C-alpha cells in the first residue's frame, strides 16, 4: 500500500493479477530463493536464535472459525507480503529479522506493566489455531491458518486501569536489521492501535505461528496481530511494545495519509478507497475477482462495537 506521491505503484498493486503474483520482476529463481529463505535458512541460524517454542505447534484448531473459501497455499502466502521494513516489493526477503532474543514491553495505564521475554509470553498464553480471512486495503486477500492467542488474554494479564481507552502497538526500529527502515519516506517505527473494546473482542488475535509451525519472518515473527475485520495494515507485525493509553494514537499510515488510511479501517465494499473501489478482491494465488464482504464477513462478531461511535467518524477507511 502506498502513499499519494507514488501513484504509478498504487495502480499496479491495486490491479494485482496472478501474473503479478507469480511472474515476479526478478524471475523464477528469485521466487524460489525467497521461499527457501523463509523456510529453510533459519535452521542455520539456530545457535543465535534458538526458539524453544517450536514444540507448541501445531496447536489445537478452534473450530468456531470457519472459512467460505480454500486456504491460501503456504508458498503463495510466504512470497506475497507487505513488510515495508524490508521492502515495498511483495516478494521480499526478511531473513535479517532476528527474532531471538526478543522482548515485548507491556506498559502505560495498567496495573501489571511487564517486560516479557517472547518465549515466556508465548508459553504463558493459551495457543490455538484459527482459520482467518485477511483483506489488504490494496484489493487482494488471503486465508491463513494462524496460531496464537486472543488479544483479550494479554489485556487481562496487563490489568488496564479505568482511564485506558486504546491499545497502541509498536514494531521494532532497527535499520541494521531492516534495510527498509533506512528510508526517510516512512516515519518509523510502524505504529498501530485499536480501542480497548476492539482489543477485548474475541476475534482480535495475537499471532505467533502459521501453517502449523512458528511464524515465518515474512509474516512478522515472532509476534503480530490478526484483526480480520479490518484492512490488513492494522495487523501490525514484529511487535516490541504494547501500551495502554487514554488518547487515540496516530498510526504510521494515518500520519502519512489520513484521508486514505484512518484509525478504524473496517472492511466495507461500499466505501471506496479515495483512488479505487473496494467492492471486490483478488484472492492471492487465484484468477478470481470475488465480492468483498462487510467487515470482511465478520459482522456478526464485531458490528456491535461500532453502534455508539460518533457519526462524524469514518469507520470504513
Ligand atoms: N510492521 C509492519 N506491519 C505490517 C506491515 C508492514 O509493512 N510493517 N504491512 C501491513 C499490511 S499493509 C498488510 S496487508 C499485512 C500483510 O501481512 P502478510 O504479509 O503476512 O500477508 O501486514 C501489515 N502489517
Ligand atoms: Mo495491506
Which features does this protein show?
317 residues, alpha+beta, Sulfite Oxidase, Chain A, domain 2, seven-stranded mixed beta sheet, five-stranded mixed beta sheet, binds ligand MTE, binds molybdenum atom
Write the layout of secondary structure elements.
Layout: H1 7-14, H2 18-22, H3 27-39, H4 74-77, E1 103-108, E2 114-117, H5 118-124, E3 128-135, E4 140-150, H6 151-158, E5 166-171, E6 191-195, H7 196-200, E7 205-210, E8 213-214, E9 224-226, E10 239-245, H8 252-256, E11 280-283, E12 290-291, H9 299-302
Protein model, in words:
The chain has 317 residues and is an alpha+beta fold. It is 19% helix and 20% strand. Strands 3, 4, 7, 8, 9, 11 and 12 form a 7-stranded mixed β-sheet that branches. It has a 5-stranded mixed β-sheet with strand order 2-1-10-5-6. The longest helix has 13 residues, at 27-39. It is globular. The two termini are 13 Å apart. The model is unreliable at 6-43 (pLDDT under 50). The structure holds the ligand Nc1nc2c(c(=O)[nH]1)N[C@H]1C(S)=C(S)[C@@H](COP(=O)(O)O)O[C@H]1N2 and molybdenum atom. The ligand Nc1nc2c(c(=O)[nH]1)N[C@H]1C(S)=C(S)[C@@H](COP(=O)(O)O)O[C@H]1N2 is lined by residues 1, 81-85, 136, 142, 171, 190, 219-220, 232-233, 235-238.
CATH second-level architecture: Alpha-Beta Complex
Number of domains: 1
Q: Mean pLDDT, rounded to whole units?
A: 89
Secondary-structure class? alpha+beta
Q: State the major sheet.
A: 7 strands, mixed
CATH top level?
A: Alpha Beta
Low-pLDDT residue intervals, each spanning 5 or more residues: 6-43
CATH topology: Sulfite Oxidase, Chain A, domain 2
Radius of gyration: 18 Å
Amino acid at each position: 500500500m502506498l502513499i499519494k506521491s507514488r501513484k504509478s505503484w498504487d495502480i499496479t498493486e491495486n490491479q494485482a493479477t496472478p501474473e503479478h503474483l507469480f511472474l515476479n520482476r526478478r524471475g523464477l529463481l528469485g521466487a524460489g530463493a525467497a521461499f527457501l529463505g523463509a523456510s529453510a535458512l533459519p535452521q542455520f541460524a539456530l545457535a543465535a536464535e534458538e526458539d524453544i517454542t517450536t514444540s507448541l505447534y501445531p496447536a489445537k484448531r478452534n473450530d468456531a472459525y470457519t472459512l467460505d473459501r480454500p486456504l491460501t497455499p503456504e508458498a503463495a502466502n510466504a512470497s506475497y507480503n507487505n513488510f515495508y521494513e524490508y521492502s515495498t516489493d511483495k516478494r521480499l526477503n526478511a531473513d535479517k529479522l532476528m527474532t531471538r532474543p526478543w522482548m515485548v514491553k507491556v506498559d502505560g495505564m495498567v496495573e501489571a506493566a511487564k517486560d516479557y521475554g517472547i518465549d515466556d509470553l508465548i508459553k504463558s498464553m493459551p495457543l490455538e489455531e484459527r482459520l482467518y480471512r485477511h483483506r489488504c486495503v490494496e484489493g487482494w486477500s488471503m486465508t491463513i491458518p494462524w496460531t496464537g492467542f486472543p488479544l483479550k488474554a494479554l489485556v487481562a494479564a496487563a490489568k488496564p486501569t479505568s482511564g485506558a481507552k486504546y491499545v497502541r502497538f509498536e514494531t521494532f526500529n532497527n535499520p541494521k536489521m531492516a534495510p527498509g527502515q533506512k528510508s526517510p519516506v516512512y516515519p518509523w517505527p510502524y505504529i498501530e492501535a485499536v480501542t480497548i473494546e476492539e482489543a477485548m473482542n474475541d476475534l482480535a488475535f495475537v499471532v505467533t505461528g502459521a501453517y502449523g509451525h512458528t511464524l515465518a519472518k515474512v509474516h512478522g515473527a515472532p509476534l503480530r496481530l490478526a484483526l480480520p475485520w479490518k484492512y490488513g495494515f492494522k495487523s501490525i507485525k514484529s511487535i516490541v511494545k504494547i501500551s495502554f493509553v487514554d488518547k487515540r494514537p496516530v498510526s504510521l499510515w494515518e500520519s502519512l495519509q489520513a484521508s486514505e488510511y484512518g484509525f478504524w479501517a473496517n472492511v466495507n465494499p461500499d466505501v471506496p478507497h479515495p483512488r479505487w473501489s473496494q467492492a471486490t478482491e483478488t484472492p492471492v494465488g487465484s484468477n478470481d475477482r470475488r465480492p468483498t464482504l462487510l467487515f470482511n464477513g465478520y459482522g456478526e462478531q464485531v458490528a456491535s462495537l461500532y453502534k455508539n461511535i460518533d457519526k462524524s467518524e469514518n469507520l470504513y477507511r
